[in-house]
Amino acid sequence: MWQKARLVERLVETESATTLVFEPETWDGHVAGQHADIRLTADDGYQAVRSYSLAAPLEGGRIAFTIQRVHGGESSTYLCDDLPVGAYAEVRGPVGGWFVWRGNETRPVLLLAGGSGIVPLQAMVRQRRALGSRVPFRLLYSVRTPEDVIYADELIRPPRGDDGVETVLLFTRETLAGSRRPPERIGLADLTAHGWPADFEPDCFICGPNGFVEAAAKLLIALGHDSHRIKTERFG
Prior knowledge:
By secondary structure, the protein is of the alpha/beta class. Helix content is 20%, strand content 33%. The chain folds into two domains: 3-95, Elongation Factor Tu (Ef-tu), domain 3; 109-235, 3-Layer(aba) Sandwich (Rossmann fold), CATH 3.40.50. The strands form two sheets. It has a six-stranded antiparallel beta sheet with strand order 4-3-6-1-2-5, with helices on one face. The chain has a five-stranded parallel beta sheet with strand order 9-8-7-10-11, sandwiched between helices. The two termini are 27 Å apart.
């Protein structure tokens, strides 16, 4: 069922990504990796519906989305730039039960993110932290430049409670000064150095653009990972 949700906070993450925190009328909770629909209605009755990943566990009755502004995208542009704090949208969800981490698993977790594909994967990291879980996580985040890193404060300087989460940033266009790794796409060397070995039987989650997801999944298969433990979510 659709329900009204008031925008209570807007956080600028990067030049093109913004986190929007909504307070829905009622929300029973969700699992990290799930998404929800947002519906916008214009004064003339025109409606636009878009689906976005939930960026964090439910906290204080509030839900969060991190939205990447798409060039020419009517909904993402309006949500990132124009919807004022205090205004209402409509939400429906949560949706999805496959690409999720529920928090009661014990296997190591490998997260591979490309661009804004970090959103549902960081939700898993945040849920782990909220639960006080000791399950070891490894996160590899492929992004164009240091300025494009979403959640930079958390990823570069992890908060307390993220012990056991190893994070590696992989830049494709421009890297940090002094970095030994040249700017390039994710490769076998990255997964060999920073991912879990296949014989650890980790649960693997990949999210990002189509090309990134296809390439990352093939790399994991080439390294011997069980395809049944590789879950993907893609866009574009």
